[in-house]
Design a protein that fits this description.
By secondary structure, the chain is an alpha/beta fold. The protein has 2 domains: 154 residues, Rossmann fold, CATH 3.40.50.720; 131 residues, N-(1-d-carboxylethyl)-l-norvaline Dehydrogenase, domain 2. It has 12 helices and 9 strands. The termini are far apart. Bound molecules: nicotinamide-adenine-dinucleotide (NAD).
Length: 295
């Protein structure tokens, strides 16, 4: 069934996601503060215009942070038709996501938080994974659209559960990348070759995505960013952002997660230096440099 979609936020992720909806035959009205809508999208004069004029029955947003999403909702909720489904795919604070759900409900709308993993490559190839929070019915209604933009969608629970799943997953990833990097640096100082450590750990209990897919040292995994001077991949700045969101949630929930908090600190320092220019696995060089400074 063809839907009328208002798509707000056409940056690195939103642009190709909206393009895939157009390719699948949906009518898409696009709006971005900076980016001009791509081919096939109907340009809107404002976010409210994208929602109101097109009589959109679904609004998808892909914005930088929670404050942008809440600002957008305040602007467009009054312009939307009651019952419109708001699907926010941005990565934002769990608390902000829950607020967005509440504001949508108070305005007579329905909402889903549906952040993604898979990066720009996944957005372009319609290979994203969506993790969704909200009602069963809302998830079922959004699913055909999510399936056009991705290859997997998991309903994780009620409001905010998609964001919770996203930051918990990325907390595992951030901590495990630091652990794998420290192990390689320790191995170096013990005279152990990268290949030997890789051959053992990737076939033993140290096996994880950070090692076997995104290996932080050049050599063992030819496709990993380490072999192209750490060009992303998954940018260090995005990992720092997601770990910051995880740290907010850890503190808000009063949970003891020492490694998650420490990973957020280490990635914040590292990302301040390299920004989006380096893959997050490049943190191995910082760990090695610090090790050499100390010795
Ligand atoms: P981006 O900066 O490229 O795009 C965001 C866009 O939102 C920009 O073009 C900006 O002009 C627009 N925007 C901001 N406020 C707006 C408003 N009020 N109305 C209309 N447009 C507005 O960022 P991105 O890389 O596309 O990431 C978007 C979201 O996806 C972020 O939350 C990010 O954490 C998440 N994410 C990104 C990646 C990735 O690899 N880039 C991977 C997974 C998740």
């Amino acid at each position: 069934m063809s839907r009328t979609v208002a798509f707000i936020g056409l940056g690195h992720m939103g642009g190709p996601m909206a393009a895939n909806l157009v390719k699948a035959g949906h009518r898409v009205r696009g709006y971005d503060l900076v980016v001009t809508p791509g081919p096939g999208l109907e340009p809107a004069a404002s976010a409210a215009d994208a929602v109101a004029d097109a009589d959109a029955d679904v609004v998808i947003s892909m914005l930088p942070a929670g404050r942008h999403v809440l600002g957008l909702y305040d602007e467009i909720l009054p312009a939307a038709r009651p019952g419109t489904l708001f699907v926010d795919c941005s990565t934002i604070d769990v608390a902000d996501a829950r607020t967005a759900h509440e504001r949508a409900a108070a305005a007579g709308m329905r909402a889903l938080d549906a952040p993604v993993s898979g990066g720009v490559v996944g957005a372009e190839a319609a290979g994203l994974t969506f993790m969704a929070g909200g009602g069963e019915e809302e998830f079922a209604e959004a699913l055909p659209l999510l399936e056009v933009m991705g290859r997997k969608a998991v309903h994780c629970g009620g409001a905010g559960a998609g964001q919770a799943a996203k930051i918990c997953n990325n907390m595992i990833l951030g901590v495990s990348m630091i652990a794998v990097s420290e192990a390689f640096v320790l191995g170096e100082s013990l005279g152990l070759s990268h290949q030997s450590l890789y051959d053992v750990a990737s076939a033993a209990s140290g096996q994880c995505w950070a090692l076997s897919v995104n290996c932080p040292v050049p050599g063992p995994v030819p496709a990993s960013p380490a072999n192209r001077d750490y060009r992303p991949g998954f940018a260090a700045s995005l990992m720092a952002k997601d770990l910051g969101l995880a740290a907010n949630a850890v503190r808000a929930a009063g949970v003891n997660a020492e490694l998650g908090l420490r990973a957020a600190e280490l990635y914040a320092v590292y990302a301040e230096r390299v920004g989006a220019a380096e893959d997050f696995s490049g943190i191995v060089r910082t760990i090695r440099d610090q090790n050499e400074e100390q010795s």
